[in-house]
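Researcher: I'm preparing a figure for a lab meeting and need a structural model of a single chain. I don't have an experimental structure, so a prediction will have to do for now. The sequence is pasted below. Please return the structure as tokens so I can convert it later.
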Amino acid sequence: MPQTRTFATMFNSRGYNRHLYLLKEDNCGGLFYHENNLVSGSLEALIQHLVPTIDYYPDRTYIFTFLLSSRLFIRPYELLAKICLMCIEQQRLNEAVLDKGKIRKFTPKIVQLLIEWTETFPYDFRDERMMRNLKDMTHKIATLDELHRKTMHQMTQSLIRKLTTLNQYEDVLSKLNASVTDRLTVLKTKPQSIQRDVVTICSDPYTLAQQLTHIELVSVLCIITIISYNTCFSDLKKTSNLEAYVEWFNRLSYLVATEICMPVKKKHRARVIEYFIDVARECFNIGNFNSLMAIISGMNMSPVSRLKKTWAKIKTAKFDILEHQMDPSSNFYNYRTALRGAAQRSLTAHSNREKIVIPFFSLLIKDIYFLNEGCANRLMNGHINFEKFWELAKQVSEFMTWRQVECPFERDRKILQYLLTAPVFSEDERRIPSVFMKRHTFRSIIFQNNRN
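Model: Understood. Here is the structure written out token by token.
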């Protein structure tokens, strides 16, 4: 079976180098190299370069980059059908008498290619046409070589599990959104019904940071698949699951603001602010930059920042350090430095906790979007600009590495349920302090009446 490298190591070089990985004769028909790096090629030649033969298997770097970018030029199910046809023609699989020796050498390589495709881009196979083509190929392979029947079955079962997870994630999102809407309606009509707050549910800020990391890692697992599927990022803003992930960021920000503004007394609000500062600091230590940024955003909202007397009761040194780390100036230079440090720690880590890297997702999407918009997909001669897609794949591959980490923290269903469904006020920031403002007004009237 051809050996493959991890995502963490496969993009360390400048580009795809033919002398490192080209196992067949140096035939560059339709492909253009610069300093031994593949920079462009016709679609037909690039597809041909993906198809394994008896003595050649494409490098994983090339497989990932081409499968990621090819959907701009050919639909995945059409690509799979074309690969199948090329294999049949090249290996003469339709002939009455087959060379079983050659078949035994070729079969492991096409099996490996299918495994890499289903593992890296499972979302492609939600298309029934794609699944039908896959079944046709696996049936053909099993017919030619009985030894790989079990491998094909395991691959298919693994793919089905991944697709089931994606479907379940979407169902959960739908149910959570409905639950949040219902609870928010109750909050607006009966504010006195609020009996719980985040500190009551989880008094330990470190535990809350760990539960936030659970949510982020589950989301990332599904989101990166969808990023890869969406035509190299040109339609990212139209993708419902990506919108849901952005909504999660916004929800966490408004949850922080709501929790801070709800208490009537300044000392209680100050306690909640200090609590979220500790949560944010632990998110930073874990490597959960998305939750960190969401918390900082919530604490910088106008309803929170204007609580001057409350902030006066707090030692803000820790918060100032966190704000400095996520400072947007110089294109988020401080954050990018911290992210590189976390990524380096992940590469040399001995535990899953040290491997966790959850980037600030909105900035990642922005980086990918501008890289995509800044370069043409095709060159003047009609060739596909493979050099551009190499850079895109390099960015996405880092995220692919980070998504593979299993969360080492124990799940707390009660805390997770609260984080995902607790009612928060809408984007109209004037609504956020409405409940505690009504309480203040009521207390003020009583106080004035007593004085009178």
